[in-house]
Amino acid sequence: MTFHHTGLSPFDNNGKTSMADQLQAFYFSLISSGLDSSETCPKSWIEAFFLLEKLLKKLDTGARQVVFIDELSWMDTPRSGFVTGLESFWNGWASARDNIMLIVCGSSTSWMVSNLVNNYGGLYGRLTYEVKLSPFTLKECDDYLKLNGIIMGQYDVAQAYMIFGGVPYYLGFFLKGMSLAQNVDRIMFAKDAVLAREYDRLFRSLFVHWEEHQKVVSLLATRHYGFTRDEISAQCGITKGGGLSDILKSLIDSDFITKYVPISTDRSKEYYKLCDPFCSFYLKFVHGNSTADNQFMQNSQNKPSYIAWRGNAFEQVCFNHIKQIKAALGVSGVLSRESALIVSGGEKTRGAQIDMVIDRDDNVLNLCEMKFCKDDYTITQSDWFNFQNKIETLGRITKWKKNIHFTLVTTQGLARNEHFGIVQKMVTLNDLFK
Questions:
Q1: Which H or E element spans position 244?
Q2: Is residue 392 domain-resident?
Q3: Are residues 329 and 427 in the same domain?
């Protein structure tokens, strides 16, 4: 490691850092790495990267020189010319040298994609390799917790995923010898909880116009199957066009939201839905609640509001584990499209809300019903009529062009009774953890 630097976080300065602050921090990193202290602090990024060039020339022995710059997006303050400076450094000098390896990282995925991965200017085609760090799967969360000595069964690990997603930084705050509820209360609800301000910190550190991004996410959190672009524009007060497009794209790139088209609708009916578990939980139970119970989780296990939220949260767990669901169905190699589906009722027909449809290219539709429960799920007579209506509704709107397999995705299993035969396929937590 010849040179290492990390950009200054904007969160600690009310969402903003100045160009002068970023340049001074970069200058101090240069001095620490061996730049002559007689050099003055740069006033532009062109000058700053020229000083980096001088440092690398001074330290060059012919061996590989690794330059590692972390949180690159934080350094790009408004109208600073940072990307131009980086382009000048790489294209004008560094790229011609065989022994320089430049590694850059950034937590703002949207910035990295827009300015590096999809750069059509001076950095076009300059990337040798890129790695997008995705959240852990359920299996990886389980492995990580066990590695840290945390003992929890699949049922509780799944709930931990519903709250924190597959983010190891959050799971790293779990302590041994405490239940899931105790850990969540300590991390989220206790006085001075470590993640009490995480929601605001997250958006301020990732997006320049973070208030508008938060506004969109807050809206999407109110309806688990999402909103259309027109609805988002109207309810958030953001005009349709480039501004809203940029916001939606950056939220998708950063894995906060996802876009889907319900089966048998035209492309104008694209829906955007919140897919980030942490934001969903935070907005439901923490955000704006100044009187939050310090032992919320321990006191809420049997409350209707928490049970209802948990059911919706499990649906998102399933959408995040399509690969595992398809493997359990034995169709890993079959192309498919997945979506939720809401069908309004008419004068002679009932409406239906379908958790997930897997539209397969082998002439099958898996109509998936998600049920998060502690024991084997029992299908009641009321459930049977509800499920039968969903099958008929899906068949009606698709004109029965494909075979419909009613599929139950649940935690433990299915109790056998007079109604269980409606289930063609079943997927359990064991399958999701593979």
A1: helix 242-253
A2: yes
A3: yes
